[in-house]
Amino acid sequence: MITVDPARLSRDVGSQARLRGSIEALGATVEHPEHSSNPLATDNLRNLMLDIYAEMKWESLRRRRETAKK
């Protein structure tokens, strides 16, 4: 299970849904941090998810730039 607060990642509802879908496609479930019993794990996972989200945004930008060059 991955605990993450999607609202902290982005205010864009579409981005939140895509991220949640990506996580769940990997076979994990997404839980809101208020439902987690381990606050430290929640913070660590939130940081991990922020890193994953930033990487996804970077890749999206890179693909758009490559497409624009063609």
UniProtKB/TrEMBL annotation:
Q: Under what name is this protein listed? A: Resolvase, N terminal domain
Q: Which organism is it from?
A: Rubrimonas cliftonensis
